[in-house]
């Protein structure tokens, strides 16, 4: 199926990218802000890649064999990966866009805060409540659509969608305006200017966000509003597809290695 193909590409390309980028960083031994963020993206992608074989096993065998908690954990990892990756992408864009400079200690502090928030607050809350409102068959997984009947879950989803779309839209407009201004300023030798190349590379992260994350969020609104009418679960495969699409961002390390984004 399409999901097997997408996750297989993620697993192969993502693993290759993580290994290759880790090797580059080990040789470079840089301690810049960008390097710290990239290292954190590497760790994030590694967690996601470790969960993908479980998903592939389920989609190939059409049966979940790893228990309910592991199912909720694998389901949670993909969401935590998406939003934490999005946060780091936004950090990269903002730092380059406004030419911010942080000392290593400040960067380490806010990065640590992001991890602590995810590990000590968001993850425990997610695992404690998500997929626990009813008893699901142990042989099935990733079919927690009934959770959408709970008002708090709907509110959280709408908030996440709203914040993500607004932030992405605002940064896209600002980034495009900056690129256009620099293109006019440095034309026709735009590629010879470091400032323009840096902003063009930042736009890569906006493109990844638009292509990988935004389709899921746009469809999520439709899914929330219509899932209760979907008695035959025809919307579920589409939801799974757009969710799988978010994991394609783990291929970004291949772009880092190629010099497209870094």
- Count of alpha and pi helical runs: 8
The geometry reads as globular
Q: Based on the coordinates given, report the CATH architecture.
A: Up-down Bundle
| Helical proportion, percent range | over 70%
- Category by helix and strand content: mainly alpha
Could you spell the SSE succession in H and E letters? Answer: HHHHHHHH
**CA radius of gyration:** 20 Å
CATH topology: Rhopdopsin 7-helix transmembrane proteins
Organism: Anseranas semipalmata (Magpie goose)
Protein name: GP141 protein
Keywords: G-protein coupled receptor, Membrane, Receptor, Transducer, Transmembrane, Transmembrane helix
GO cellular component, one term: membrane
Features:
mainly alpha, Rhopdopsin 7-helix transmembrane proteins, 8 helices, 262 residues
Mind explaining what this structure looks like?
The chain is mostly helical. It has one domain (2-258): Rhodopsin 7-helix transmembrane proteins (Rhopdopsin 7-helix transmembrane proteins, Up-down Bundle), CATH 1.20.1070.10. The protein is 76% helix and 0% strand. α1 runs antiparallel to α2, α2 packs antiparallel against α3 and α3 (68-97) packs parallel to α5 (151-186). The mean pLDDT is 85. Residues 13-222 form the G-protein coupled receptors family 1 profile domain. The chain crosses the membrane at residues 6-26, 33-56, 76-98, 110-130, 155-182, 203-222, 242-261. Keywords: G-protein coupled receptor, Membrane, Receptor, Transducer, Transmembrane, Transmembrane helix. It is found in: Membrane.
